[in-house]
């Protein structure tokens, strides 16, 4: 068991209850110094009592629960003290425990200890942070499934198949003289194919996984007055951005968040792009261009009632290589002839921000861009970290397969390739980790988790 750590586990501010958490060596004795209760403290019992300071003056009353190692979240001895949720009380409790020998926990340190003590694997530990920050029901469901080990189970089964394969090849090398069962070339190749398919299935979820975790950034761009702010308000179902018939109404960009069928979307309304003379508007236009670069998807808005103008085409040049949806707005005013072939390769959606016509189609197109895939029996979405490791594993495995097919590989090298591919999968669940990887994962947690 490691040195005792302490943190407030509930958010700062006034609340009915505030929780102080301790974990590590000797936390029961540390807690006992300042917590007075009538009965003896037993593991997994709620003990009502009073928290006192060094002078035995009462600080607050509350409930203490003791979790004895290894049956605790971290796998170490733990104390959870529920007090009244006043920041002054919680600060006082924290100070007392710090003086009694605890150290302030680092962000994510409780969960990191849970991982190091084998309570959770790495993918599950990551899911803890994601469950807390999930912005939509779909994101929450995906993280609870990951926390329950669904992703780990799948990755582990692929990794085990690889290890099995490497064991066969190893046996081939070591006992090549003896009569032991080995795999035929066809069997090896079909096993590799199956594993590659499994990796691909996971990779297919990466795009949605990224959007679920980070939200999808959508920038609304176009020339002045085409109805960008109107569209922004219509999608948010809220009168957020100022709408007027004056060109150049929007100066600063405005952000709003919405939830499209479980995908958290950050919508950005920008200033109409034109050769602005006004210095303030000029800055706004520069920012709009920057927002195009930051966006996952661009909504390029045109005024369908007036057709495509020179200015529109200039803006199109900036967005045409991006993931862009061409939005023809104001169709309630009738449609001018539109040379839509210019926008070939991009989806085109006709809407009226005023009447709401076509907004459903637009939302569906946005979802399509999010690549939302729900696969039978596999409801997990891999993260960017997982995706990278899956790609590396796939690369090594494909290289192996190509060489193996041509019988251009020694069994020794084959074994190394397969082990390397297995190791990348192992990093997803944390069979193999470095301090750097752990640091970057757990530093993203809040303190007290
Ligand atoms: N009839 C009709 N009018 C619209 C529609 N969308 C926007 N408008 C009108 O078009 C004008 C400009 O709308 P805005 O939403 O301010 O346009 P914008 O693109 O944000 O303009 P800037 O901020 O100046 O770049 C306003 O008078 C809106 O009421 C629509 O679908 N139909
Ligand atoms: Mg505007």
Descriptive account of the structure:
The chain has 449 residues and is an alpha/beta fold. It folds into three domains: 5-105, Gyrase A, domain 2 (2-Layer Sandwich), CATH 3.30.1360; 126-205 and 379-442, Up-down Bundle (Four Helix Bundle (Hemerythrin (Met), subunit A)), CATH 1.20.120; 214-370, 3-Layer(aba) Sandwich (Rossmann fold), CATH 3.40.50.300. It contains 15 helices and 13 strands. It has helices at residues 27-34, 87-99, 109-116, 122-133, 137-147, 150-174, 185-203, 206-214, 228-236, 279-294, 310-319, 359-370, 384-405, 411-429, 435-442, and strands at 5-8, 15-23, 35-36, 46-52, 58-67, 78-85, 103-104, 216-221, 254-260, 263-269, 297-303, 324-329, 347-350. The strands form two sheets. Strands 3-4-5-6-2-1-7 form a seven-stranded mixed sheet. It has a six-stranded mixed sheet with strand order 9-10-8-11-12-13, with helices on both faces. Strand 4 (46-52) and strand 5 form a beta hairpin. Helix 4 (122-133) packs antiparallel against helix 5 (137-147) and helix 6 runs antiparallel to helix 7 (185-203). The longest helix is centred in the middle third of the chain and has 25 residues, at 150-174. The radius of gyration is 29 Å and the shape is flat. It starts with a strand and ends in a 7-residue tail after the last helix. 39% of the residues are buried. The mean pLDDT is 93. Magnesium ion binds next to helix 9.
């Amino acid at each position: 068991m490691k040195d005792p750590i302490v943190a407030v586990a509930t958010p700062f501010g006034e609340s009915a209850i505030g929780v102080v958490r301790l974990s590590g060596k000797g936390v029961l004795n540390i807690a006992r110094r300042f917590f007075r209760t009538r009965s003896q403290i037993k593991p997994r019992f709620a003990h009502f009592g009073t928290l006192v300071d060094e002078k035995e003056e009462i600080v607050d009353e509350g409930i203490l629960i003791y979790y004895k190692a290894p049956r605790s979240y971290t796998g170490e001895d733990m104390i959870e003290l529920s007090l009244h949720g006043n920041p002054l009380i919680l600060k006082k409790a924290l100070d007392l425990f710090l003086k009694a020998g605890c150290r302030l926990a680092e962000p994510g340190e409780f969960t990191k200890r849970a991982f190091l003590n084998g309570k959770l694997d790495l993918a599950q530990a990551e899911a803890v942070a994601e469950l807390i920050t999930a912005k939509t029901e779909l994101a929450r469901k995906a993280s609870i499934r990951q926390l329950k080990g669904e992703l780990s189970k799948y990755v582990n089964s692929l990794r085990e198949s690889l290890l099995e394969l490497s064991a066969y090849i190893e046996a081939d090398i070591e006992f090549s003289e003896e009569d032991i069962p080995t795999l035929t070339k066809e069997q090896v190749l079909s096993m590799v194919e199956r594993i590659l398919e499994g990796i691909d299935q996971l990779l297919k979820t990466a795009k949605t996984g990224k959007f679920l975790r980070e939200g999808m950034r959508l920038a609304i761009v176009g020339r002045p007055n085409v109805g960008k702010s109107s569209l922004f308000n219509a999608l948010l179902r809220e009168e957020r951005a100022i709408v007027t018939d004056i060109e150049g109404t929007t100066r600063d960009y405005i952000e709003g968040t919405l939830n499209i069928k479980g995908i958290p979307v950050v919508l950005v309304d920008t200033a109409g792009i034109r050769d602005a003379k006004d210095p303030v508007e000029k800055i706004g236009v520069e920012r709009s261009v920057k927002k195009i670069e930051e966006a996952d998807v661009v909504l390029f808005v045109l005024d369908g009632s007036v057709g495509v103008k020179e200015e529109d085409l200039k803006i199109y040049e900036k967005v045409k290589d991006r993931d862009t949806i061409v939005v023809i707005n104001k169709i309630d005013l009738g449609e001018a002839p539109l040379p839509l072939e210019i926008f070939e390769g991009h989806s085109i959606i006709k809407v009226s921000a005023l009447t709401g016509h076509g907004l459903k189609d637009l939302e569906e197109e946005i979802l399509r861009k999010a690549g939302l895939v729900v696969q039978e029996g596999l409801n997990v979405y891999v993260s960017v970290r997982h995706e990278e490791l899956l790609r590396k594993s796939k690369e090594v495995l494909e290289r192996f397969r190509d060489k193996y097919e041509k019988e251009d590989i020694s069994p020794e090298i084959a074994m190394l390739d397969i082990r390397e591919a297995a190791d990348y999968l192992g990093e997803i669940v944390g069979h193999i980790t470095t301090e750097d990887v752990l640091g970057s994962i757990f530093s993203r947690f809040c303190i007290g988790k």
